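Preliminary data (for renewal application), zinc ion complex.
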Amino acid sequence: MSANQPKFSIRPRSRLKADVYCLAFGPDDPDAKSLSRALPRALGAAVNELVGDPLLKRRVTKDLEGAAGAGQRLVVTRLDKDDWDSIAAWLKRSVEFANRRGAKRLALILPDSEATRSPGTIPRVARIVGVGAYKFSEYLPKGSGTSKKAPGSRSPRLEDILIVPPAGTEKSARVEVAVANGVATGIKLCRDLGNTPGNTATPAWMASQARRLAKRHDLKVTVLGPVELKRKGMGGILAVGQGSANTPRLARLRYGSGGPLVALVGKGVTFDTGGISIKPSSGMEEMKYDKCGACTVLGVVEAVASLGLPVRLDAYVPLAENMPSREAYRPGDIVTCYNGKTVEIINTDAEGRMILADALSWAAEAEPDHIVEMSTLTGAVVVALGVHGAGCFTPDDQLAASLLEAADRQAEKLWRLPIWPEHLADMRGNHAELRNSGPRWGGASSAAAFLSQFVREHSSWAHLDIAATAYSTKPVSAGQTGATGYGVATVVDWLRSLT
Ligand code: BES
Ligand code: MN
Ligand code: ZN
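Predicted structure:
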């Protein structure tokens, strides 16, 4: 896979060496010139000069000269507000600038403000910056990814990102940066898998990636193929997968030996044509991202295992390709899921919930303390929240609160939406207990109500609908659209909050 993954580290001001320095000072900074005091000499002088520039409204850049600074560049930005939206915008611009210059080392000198002194600053900065420092170059000509390229290219070559936190916070920042690097590994895995197209990323391939992940971290792994799925009565996964020559799988990874047991479940539809209820062709290529829930789960496992967090994880990834064919499942079919519930198929494009039904009811058997499931489940959540945030559905108020807090700390937007009894009533079947598709309105909530039928009553479970956030159709990094890694940071943060 593409090799570019920059490493974050904490630097005090006095020990800086980078190709590009990005420095911001906030509105409350009484004397911006004091910023330069502890900087290396060449840099400090340049900062003084720029900060003293009457033209400095928002941002000025300067090529550094002299022995210490030759060939390096300094960008000084004045932020008008001390809030995370402004800081995030500055961070995004900074990493883009470094990408354009083909820089290997970027130093980010954070403004000293209330926002940057709040706990969780470093993981948040690393997440925002990390998103932009990525390119999926697996299928591009060699040399367009991480190797040397003409200036002006947008290919990230960043290897080191040095973060200079507010003075006096370096110690806690060092602890946090180690976590951030672990999370970054997980986000990268999630994005690499998510961006891999359906002709490579078949269910079998995804399962082999899960196996590789297990091997890297010495985890227990089980992969069920069509024969085992049949034997176990996993009719949902089999129904969705039966139309494709790329047969379905269900992978389970187990991590840890102590601490709370959390089951993670992620939708892994390696390509969603809609099946017999086929989707319109325009934009259908986006449906290679319909496995992003599974990718997020694998990313979380990667991060948690590399950090050695004191939790136990059971990670379930149901994998199937939803195709129309003479073997495909059809509207009107009645399918029996792993927990014995029957489902009448109304729309073969409501396939995610069918594979999740089996995976959730298997996950519930171990009676985990919590189940967190992530899926690109409905277009309806995109209608509800736009592309800016994900929906959180859970009957458990405490779980909702703790997930929303974790998302907030990571600057990932997550919003709670309801599951009302009426939503479940919408999903009652005619010739079966349930149907897989209800009325048009409230489709994100009725999908969640459907899922609620496959976990135990009164258990602590949440469904995160990441259809809008798992990938972006606007460029997110190096001019590319694609998988964002949304959710990995939030779930890892939430898992850390449990211990
Ligand atoms: N994978 C889609 C949901 C989706 C839509 C993900 C847009 C990302 C972007 C899902 O399988 C689907 O097709 N859902 C249907 C459900 C309907 C048939 C009940 C939808 O949202 O239209
Ligand atoms: Mn679908
Ligand atoms: Zn789907």
